[in-house]
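Researcher: Here's the sequence for the chain we discussed earlier.
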Amino acid sequence: MMDIHEILKLLPHRYPFLMVDRVLAYEKGKSIRALKNVTINEPFFTGHFPHRPVMPGVLMLEAMAQAAALLSFATQGVTPDDKTVYYFAGIDGARFKRPVEPGDQLVMDVELVRHKAGIYKFKGITRVGDEVACEAELMCTMRTVA
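Model: Thanks. This is the structure I predict for it:
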């Protein structure tokens, strides 16, 4: 389990782009379960859409990627520094099954499929309650920047 204070030490993201509020469970080298509370105060809701607020699908993917980054750091036993950046390398098979609205709680289950030559491949499923909201395969990589 990781609370918001531990998450802030590992991820460089900050409001309004931090998409993980808590890590519920993780197993190094295997999987992570993380939580995002979705509130009406999210800045994207003012434009997406004013008459029917819906969380953009790309932000659900971002939430899964942030959970995946936390799993990667825990697996490697590292705390990234200001010169370490975690990037998307690819997204495959993204499917959006249910709209996510204010008041929903996103639970992201991300499984490490493979780690080879600095590229991590994950399978992620995001749920609201028992319903799948989003699923995708994510590829990410860590890079050191100058």
